[in-house]
Amino acid sequence: MAKKLKIGVLVSGSGTNLQAIIDAAADGLPVEVVHVVSSRPDAYGIKRAEDAGIDTLVLNRAEYADAEAADRKIALTLKEAGAQYVVMAGYMRMVTPVLLDAFPNRILNLHPALLPSFVGAHAIQDAFDAGVKVTGVTVHFANAEYDKGPIVAQRAVEVLESDTVDELESRIHAVEHELYPQVIGWIAEGRVSVGDDGKVHVATQ
């Protein structure tokens, strides 16, 4: 049994991926969510954390006027909580070097497309509008460039001829809820590393 990996989770909205992690941990994933940070006071992810008995830090737009100060507060809070990794789950703020330096190669992000395609906040709509036949989900380490950090894992999602963008989005989210806990589990098992070539290597069991 792998030792539990302590993580802090950053959210901005409904927190469905946070819930997937909480549920997976309850089912035996060797992970403990030690703190949840929300960039918005009205994010439903806060209630999900509170319902699970997880401490929260709630920031607001005014506090993000100084992004580095906000990230300094986040880093301090997560360090004090014992977090070893930071997991962004629908977090809509770009992290600054303050947080990146506090958790080097230990900040995970989830993107609803197959990077490097369709970067940005509207990836599902952009892929749908482009008429691609396959899109997907990417888990990667965050770095100073938006959606360009080292890729840990990807999973493809077929775009069906009958799809609406909402149907495609629903299937992508279903894959996210499976893939993200799986990758976090790999990290807990010590299977994930970033090589000197800047690429992520995942050891087989």
Task: Walk me through this protein's architecture.
With 205 residues, the protein is of the alpha/beta class. The protein has one domain (5-202): 3-Layer(aba) Sandwich (Rossmann fold), CATH 3.40.50.170. It has helices at 16-26, 44-51, 67-80, 97-102, 123-130, 165-188; strands spanning 5-11, 31-38, 56-58, 85-88, 107-111, 134-141, 151-158, 192-194, 200-202. The protein has a 7-stranded mixed beta sheet, with helices on both faces. A two-stranded antiparallel ribbon has the order 8-9. A hairpin with a 5-residue loop joins strand 8 (192-194) and strand 9. The mean pLDDT is 96.
Layout of strands and helices, then pairs:
Elements: E1 5-11, H1 16-26, E2 31-38, H2 44-51, E3 56-58, H3 67-80, E4 85-88, H4 97-102, E5 107-111, H5 123-130, E6 134-141, E7 151-158, H6 165-188, E8 192-194, E9 200-202
Parallel strand pairs: 1-2, 1-4, 2-3, 4-5
Antiparallel strand pairs: 5-6, 6-7, 8-9
Helix pairs in contact: 1-6
Keywords for this structure?
35% helix; seven-stranded mixed beta sheet; 9 strands; two-stranded antiparallel sheet; 6 helices; alpha/beta; Rossmann fold; 205 residues
Short note summarizing the structure:
This protein is α/β, with parallel strands linked by helices and 205 residues long.
Strand count, sense and barrel status of the largest sheet are: 7 strands, mixed
- Assign the CATH topology: Rossmann fold
Helix content: 25-40%
Q: SS-based structural class?
A: alpha/beta
Shape: globular
Count the helices. How many?
Answer: 6
The CATH C-level class name = Alpha Beta
* Integer average pLDDT: 96
Biggest sheet: strand arrangement: 3-2-1-4-5-6-7
Tell me the β content.
15-25%
H/E series = EHEHEHEHEHEEHEE
N- and C-termini, Cα separation: 13 Å
Q: What would CATH call the homologous superfamily? A: Formyl transferase, N-terminal domain
Rg result: 16 Å
The quaternary structure here is: single chain
How many beta strands in the DSSP annotation?
A: 9
CATH architecture: 3-Layer(aba) Sandwich
